[in-house]
Specification:
481 residues; alpha/beta; 36% helix; globular; binds flavin-adenine dinucleotide
């Protein structure tokens, strides 16, 4: 493939030196004053054809593409980018779909800067900005979805073997897509009334429109994946009962949807809620609408605790819901925030404030029991821990009080406990995650596999998808023996 005629022709069009001299494209964005008016106006607009083809020219089509080592689902990155360069966008999207069930999603939310783009030749060898792999992935996937001419990947002959996924987040969807392509009769059981997991109930529409997730799901349906909503595996029916119904393989992708709190005085006051509740009510239940049966609580002076993507999504949501002041309070420095750099930048552009090296220690309420103030303590960076990350140490006597009328707690999540607590003999680690073999994602029960946040305890979309693919590969090998 690499030495095909068209590839040689592309190389002849422009020299390697000229390719490296092109500047990385900038993602066009909706103007700040427009986007802060609505939860449903997408911030990143997407590249034009001209921008995408120009950016694709920067890719050197390396003989050993190190970018692919950084992709947990092993996308043929130079393959799809070179097809964009020569204008064959449908071939580009076909290449994406061979290994990724959700390219339009990943092109929007994957932390490429820490994965494929971090391994790009430009970063590694030239110390220049990487090829914008994520933007190009989004371009090819969107072009396909918008054209309506979606390419359904090749599918093996049906083998009649029934398998299932617990949970319709990216991990379950990725597993389901691969198993359906391999000819299995695949059902995804989802506890909620919508398919998509965090992609629907967590990540706001200004970053990932629900319509995009729905279009990707429709494609999975076309490959033959069946979806059952409002079905809690372990409660509606147990894994044992489903086994008796003929399911031969189980993939648990039930995520880490259990919010964590800090366990500090006053945390039960009205006006203090988890980011899970806040975002789910807005994203999945339309509770930002004044007509909603149970509208979400609004604040003028909102504080969000945490420094991850969830915290950024919450503070930006608060701004869109009319907060006069929306502020992040984070115990470490900005450089240590786990959130994507782009999200931090966007939050700042939108007027969100950042109070770093600061941690809440107590909440105070008004006479009706609604939070009105919080006591915070200044922090200093201590020694690096085992992972090399410097700890945050409290500075004694540095406490002071700030005003707030709504606090969103985004300090992490725990694994969903239903499957670990209802499947007898399933090995579970101390923190509630399911223990699996890292290469095969097989659990202590031979026909039960698991991956995504239920195994990792809160990670990323693409890692969850990679787990789903690995489990599908192994389950297929086992069932075909
Ligand atoms: C607000 C927010 C923003 C994020 N932003 C990003 C980002 O920008 N980039 C990124 O890469 N990652 C991001 N993440 C992390 C990423 O979304 C998760 O790592 C990923 O969704 C995990 O996928 P999953 O399939 O394992 O679980 P989930 O997406 O959590 O899906 C699990 C699904 O299983 C269902 N379920 C649970 N138990 C059962 C049961 N017993 N029976 C049936 N169904 C069940 C749940 O209802 C849920 O729909 C973000 C997370 C949050 C919360």
């Amino acid at each position: 493939m690499r030495d095909s005629e068209w590839r040689k022709q592309l190389r002849g069009l422009i020299s390697a030196k000229e390719r490296t001299e092109l500047l990385r494209v900038k993602m066009p964005e909706t103007a700040v004053e427009e986007r802060v008016k609505s939860q449903r106006v997408e911030v990143n607009i997407g590249l034009t054809v001209e921008q995408a083809q120009r950016e694709a020219k920067r890719c050197m089509d390396c003989v050993n593409p190190t970018c692919m080592e950084g992709c947990p689902v092993s996308i043929d990155i130079p393959g799809f980018i070179k097809n964009i360069e020569r204008g064959d966008f449908s071939e580009a999207s076909l290449i994406l779909r061979k290994t990724s069930a959700l390219p339009a999603v990943c092109g929007r939310v994957c932390p490429q800067e820490k994965q494929c783009e971090a391994k790009c030749f430009y970063v590694q060898k030239l110390k220049k900005p990487s090829v914008a792999i994520g933007y190009l992935e989004r371009f090819a996937a969107d072009d396909e979805l918008q054209s309506g001419k979606t390419s359904v990947p090749e599918k093996a002959k049906p083998n009649g073997i029934k398998v299932l996924a617990v949970g319709s987040g990216p991990s379950g969807l990725s597993f389901a897509g691969d198993m359906a392509k391999a000819g299995y009769d695949v059902t995804v059981f989802e506890a909620l009334h919508e398919i998509g997991g965090v992609l629907k109930y967590g990540i706001p529409e200004f970053r990932l429109p629900n319509s995009i997730v729905d279009k990707e799901i429709k494609l999975l349906e076309r490959v033959g994946v069946k979806f059952v909503k409002n079905f809690i595996v372990g409660q509606t029916q147990s894994v044992d009962e489903l086994r008796k119904e003929g399911f031969k393989g189980f993939y648990v992708g039930s995520g880490a949807g259990l919010p964590r709190f800090m366990d500090i005085p006053g945390e039960n006051f009205n006006g203090i809620l988890s980011s899970n509740e806040y975002l789910t009510r807005v994203n999945l239940m339309g509770a930002d609408s004044p007509e909603a049966d149970t509208p979400v609580l609004r604040g003028k002076n909102v504080v969000v605790i945490g420094g991850g993507n969830t915290a950024m999504d919450s503070v930006r949501t608060a701004k869109r819901l009319g907060a006069e002041k929306a502020m992040i309070v984070y115990r470490r420095t900005e450089a240590q925030m786990p959130a994507r750099v782009e999200e931090v930048q966007h939050a700042k552009e939108e007027g969100c404030e950042f109070l770093t090296l600061t941690n809440p220690v107590e909440y105070m309420s008004d006479e009706k029991g609604r939070v009105k103030q919080m006591k915070v303590q200044k922090m200093a960076l201590g020694e690096p821990d085992a992972g090399g990350r410097r700890s945050a140490e409290p500075i004694v006597g540095s406490e002071y009080v700030i005003d707030t009328d709504l606090v969103i707690v985004a300090v992490g999540v725990s694994p969903n406990p239903i499957i670990p607590s209802t499947v007898a003999g399933l090995e579970v680690a101390k923190g509630g995650t399911i223990v699996v073999d890292e290469d095969t994602m097989q659990s202590s029960i031979p026909d039960v596999y698991a991956g995504g946040d239920i195994v990792r305890g809160g990670a990323t979309v693409i890692l969850a998808m990679g787990d789903g693919r690995r489990a599908a590969k192994r389950m297929n090998e086992k069932l075909m023996c």
